[in-house]
Amino acid sequence: MKGLLEGRLIQGALQRARGLSAVRQFVQFCLVGVLGVSIQYGTFFALHRWGRLHYLVASTAGAVVGTIVIYFINRSWTFRVQSGGVLDQSLRYLGMIASFYAVNALCMFVLTDVAGLRPELSQVITLGVTTLHNFLLSKLWVFR
Fold first, then answer.
1. Rounded to whole angstroms, how far apart are CA atoms 99 and 138?
2. 44 and 87 fall within a common domain
3. What's the 3-state SS for 103-121?
4. Structural domains counted in the chain
5. Cα(126)–Cα(108) distance, rounded to whole angstroms?
6. Which residue of 38, 43, 112, 116 has the lowest C-beta tally within 10 Å?
7. Which one, of 131, 96, 101, 127, lies nearest residue 25 by Cα?
8. CB-hemisphere CA count at 13 Å for 136?
9. Which domain does 73 fall in, by range?
10. Are residues 101 and 56 in the same domain?
11. Domain check: are 91 and 142 in the same one?
């Protein structure tokens, strides 16, 4: 009986630790996202304002830089991937980004055109949906 009870206590502690780990990862994921968006906007601003590049070129460059930074920080810090699989993970990451754009567009369309919400509110809700989408795909598929 004592061994069974100790086994259950250890198993319960491990489950709680895994849950805390997922919360830690989600918080780190969100922090990395804020950093990535800041880098994206900073790159856009510098290239457009000071470099006099067309706004679409500057925006695309910013998105690429931000995406690369987010990938590497999430890989090493958030999900603590230590070795191997960079090419496979990079390809899965690109797949996740493509699915993000599809989910973003679908949510915006459904919330705005079907549900009749204002686009500004739709964007806030969509941001929550896509953040969860990207976190789950990153955790369970990209950096597994």
1. 12
2. no
3. HHHHHHHHHHHHCCCCHHH
4. 2
5. 6
6. 116
7. 131
8. 8
9. 25-80
10. no
11. yes
- In this structure, what is the dihedral angle of CA atoms 25, 26, 27, 29, given to the nearest 10 degrees? 80
pTM assigned to the model? 0.81
Contact partners, residue 130, CB within 8 Å, separation at least 6:
100, 103, 104, 107
18 belongs to a structural domain: no
* Structure confidence at residue 20 as a pLDDT band (50, 70, 90): confident
CA within 13 Å, CB half, 7: 4
User: What's the burial of 93, exposed, middle or buried (CB within 10 Å: 0-12/13-18/19+)?
Assistant: buried
Q: Give a yes or no: residue 67 inside a domain.
A: yes
DSSP at 143: T
State yes or no: pLDDT of 9 exceeds 60: no
